[in-house]
Amino acid sequence: MKLQRLEEILRKIADTCLLVAGDFFLDQYWLVDPSLEEISLETGLAAYQIAEVRLNPGAAGTVANNLSALQVGQIEALGIVGKDGNGVELLKGLQHRNIHTENLIVTAQRRTPVYTKPLSMDTGEEMERFDIKNRTKLPEELEDEFLRRLEAGLARADGIAILDQVQEEDCGVITNRVRRELGKMAQRYPEKIFLADSRAQIMNFRNVIIKPNENEASEALSIPTSDKKRLLKSLAAISLSPVFMTCGSRGISLFDGEKTHHFPALPVAGPIDIVGAGDSVSAAIVSSRCAGANLEEAAQLANLVASVTIQKLGTTGTASPTEIMETAAANRELVENWG
User: pLDDT tens for residues 141-165?
Assistant: First the structure.
């Protein structure tokens, strides 16, 4: 892709309206200072000392963060959060990034999901994580309200990113019923871009672009990751739509309905942090498609975005248009001859 074309797509992204629907988490980063460690008088166990706390919207919030960094014109969040302190922090984090939160359902019937990630200040490495998730099925009245707001939100949006994060069946926002309705909505709104990413249910989406990583795809189909073409074609036959598959350090593969394409990852020097890289890819694909990029261009932009985000350590990274253009310019020969 020529740099002029890349710049044009990034400019057009600013005119789009995107809906982000799914499981919004709060990411809590706890920076642990080992030099301050104490021993608990009550238990004799280590009492780790938190020197700093960083709060960011996570899961579907990470997709929304990345859309904000890409300077999408309007971003609307649609999900369910608890009427609790973590929900307050999540809403504040989204609003700080100019993400509209009016359609988030706030309810005492659910907890706000949280990923708590302790990080050693000595090494920068993530320690054992603490998760809060809802482990009971989503109440039917909340499911009904979510679907009502989803239909209304789609009428305003150019496209939708669907983030299905919760692995326990029907315990997250994207339930089996919601997946079926999304497939029907995609048929009713063929002019809109639908993209879904799912930890455990990627095989249950229809009529929408899907974006698994290669391990998720392999596990779902019992096909080895080495058989990439078969994986992609099988996924497309089930989803009835194009498939983007992230392949870690090897880049992104695409099946467009007729041909398989592969775009190698850009070379990156130094330490990396892959947390949230898949979400940044989803944001790049859905926003660029809404801005008029073809499937191959969307995959290439997603590769560029991921190469920026993974270099941001100890946080869930994002990529701005300026960072993307600088990275593309530094790798001009590869970018202009991808594929």
Answer: 999 999 999 999 999 999 999 999 9
